[in-house]
Amino acid sequence: MLKIYNIKDKQEYIKEVAILTQKQWGKKNLSEEELKNKITKKIEKIKNSFEKELYCKLILLEGKKLIGFISIFPTDGEERKDLWPWYSTMYVKKEYRGYGYSKILNNAILTEAKKRKIKRLYLKTKLENFYEKFGAKYINKLSNGEKLYYIEI
């Protein structure tokens, strides 16, 4: 059975999420020690963010198997510190892609944003024609080549 949880209520998944986050968006070609340090820092960052008003990380589980995750962050990168909060880290494990799990994660994070009285989320991506299906509106291209969007809640 599929179910969405706030990761702070399922902390046994933090390490797996940290590893997947590092592999997807982190620096590549790290030594084993550097990789271990990055993952340790990501775990601590997640744990230290639980009480931040504009932070949330939701995970999608099928039974005890992690399918994917998604987040709201107060900031996301250096390019546009004037915009907040951010729709971030939508991730579905490769073996589960193509089955609509991203839609489940999207709906869950938008519901969470609404509960928190957030009216707009910003997101950045290199993906082509992906977030538009969730209602994302294009703003412009960032200096790093990513596209900037917003989603009205």
Features:
153 residues, Aminopeptidase, 4-stranded antiparallel sheet
Account of the protein in words:
The chain is an alpha+beta fold. The protein has one domain: Aminopeptidase (3-Layer(aba) Sandwich). The protein is built from three helices and seven strands. The strands form two sheets. A four-stranded antiparallel β-sheet has the order 1-2-3-4, sandwiched between helices. The chain has a three-stranded antiparallel β-sheet with strand order 5-7-6, with no helix packed on it. The mean pLDDT is 96.
Number of strands: 7
Alpha carbon gyration radius: 15 Å
The gross shape turns out to be globular
Put simply, the count of helices is 3
What helical percentage do the residues reach? 25-40%
Distance between the ends: 27 Å
Q: How is the quaternary structure best described?
A: single chain
- Which fold name is given in CATH as the topology? Aminopeptidase
Describe the strand arrangement of the main beta sheet, using strand numbers.
Answer: 1-2-3-4
CATH superfamily caption = Gcn5-related N-acetyltransferase (GNAT)
Please name the CATH architecture: 3-Layer(aba) Sandwich
- Any low-confidence stretches, pLDDT <50, length ≥5? none
Largest sheet, described in full? 4 strands, antiparallel
Highest-level CATH class: Alpha Beta
Mean pLDDT: 96
Number of domains: 1
Order of helices and strands: EHHEEEHEEE
How much of the sequence lies in strands comes to: 25-35%
Structural class: alpha+beta
Write a concise synopsis of the structure shown.
By secondary structure, the protein is α+β, with helices and mostly antiparallel strands. It has helices at 14-25, 32-49, 101-115; strands at 2-6, 56-62, 65-73, 86-92, 120-125, 137-141, 147-152.
